[in-house]
Amino acid sequence: MKIGPISDEAFDLPEEIIEKYKIGVARFKIDLQELKNLPGNIYQKTREAERQGIESVVKTSQPSINDFLSIFKEKLNEFEEVFCVTISSKLSGTYNSALQAKKFLQKEFQDKVHVIDSLNGSAGQGLVVLKIIELAKRNLNSQEINNKIKEVIEKTKLFGMYHDPKWLKASGRFPRFVPVIMERAEKMSIKPVFRMVNGKLSVAGVKRNIIDLSSALFEEFDKATKKARGEGKKIIVGITHADDISQATKLKEMILSLKNTEVAFINLTCFPIGGHIGPNSLILSWQE
Fold first, then answer.
1. How is 211-254 classified by DSSP, letter by letter?
2. Boundary residue ending a domain (127, 153, 179)
3. Which residue from 16, 73, 228, 248 could staple onto 233, CB 3.0 to 4.6 Å apart?
4. How many CA atoms lie within 13 A of 56 on its CB side?
5. What is the Cα 143 distance to its own chain's centre?
6. Mean pLDDT calculated for residue range 202-225
7. Are 186 and 241 part of one and the same domain?
8. Which of 157, 220, 165 is nearest to 191 (CA)?
9. What is the CATH number of the domain that holds 208?
10. What is the pLDDT of residues 40-66, one digit of tens each?
């Protein structure tokens, strides 16, 4: 490909896809504090800290301007042009960091860097990156990709659910009343289904007495894609999970039981996203 892909870490694509397509990744900064020496991945550390009664808030920060600048320079040595996809600018300052980094390039290179606001995150952002790779493999030029990707972003949907609302409170990123409302809902066996709308999280609906998160998300997916599938449109899906591969796998199997569906990837949700909704949360995204 003449065009190379770049993203911040929130796109949640598996490492094998990152290596295959030489995707440049701007990593978030994570300060584990007291969790540093606990075993396992970040979610396992979080559970173990709770079990031991260790009170510690993991701090995260977005990739810096220098992080993006270094990756831009590296990838422009490999490709003629690059497309950098970021997590929604309405959730993070990452998009602005990438835009500022572009300005520090020599003038002749600035037009070769295209920064795209995914207006999404996690699996949704990952699907946008995969679509850019697909278009680049078809030898579309950068202008054609820019034109098409706007429509792709509009058609990229994301639903998500948490396992336990207590992590919303622990994250400190939500107004105080939000976790309180969610805890009350939990006592009444009610869970909200979140979705991305114009780059922001909103509540798509509520589920009562759910069996598990995978079944609840599948119901929403089935309803939302029924018309498109009936018209013969292919639905491409991405799934991420906060250390609950069994639920992610179950969701994949249910989705593949429907006609005209394909699961592009399953992966762990990055902590800058999953840390706010907690272990065992589940995210489902798709494109028509």
1. S-HHHHHHHHHHHHHHHHHHTT--EEEEEEESS-HHHHHHHHHH
2. 153
3. 228
4. 23
5. 25
6. 93
7. yes
8. 165
9. 3.30.1180.10
10. 998 999 899 889 988 767 788 999 999
**Considering only CA atoms, which of 271, 259, 267 is closest in space to residue 284?**
267
Residue 271 structure tokens: 């902590």
Strand order in the sheet with 200-208: 200-208, 190-197, 156-161, 282-287, 235-241, 261-268
| pLDDT tops 70 at residue 176 | no
Co-location of 144 and 12 in the same domain: yes
- Residues in the chain, how many? 288
Taking only the tens place, the pLDDT of each residue in 177-189 is: 666 777 777 777 8
- Are 256 and 171 within one domain? yes
Return mean pLDDT, the chain: 92
Q: Name residues whose C-beta falls within 8 Å of residue 36's C-beta, 6 or more positions apart in sequence.
A: none
Q: What are the tokens at 208?
A: 């009562």
Backbone angles phi, psi at 206, to 5 degrees: -130, 150
211 lies in the same domain as 112 = no
| CATH number of the domain bearing residue 110 | 3.40.50.10440
> What residues make up the domain containing 24?
3-28+63-153
Which of 101, 122, 153 is the last residue in one of the domains? 153
Q: Quick one: average pLDDT of 156-161?
A: 97
**What is the count of structural domains for the chain?**
3
Residues near 265 by Cβ (< 8 Å), separated by ≥ 6? 13, 14, 17, 123, 126, 238, 239
pLDDT for position 284 = 98
What residues contact 73, with CB distance under 8 A and at least 6 apart? 105
**Can you give the pLDDT at residue 93?**
95
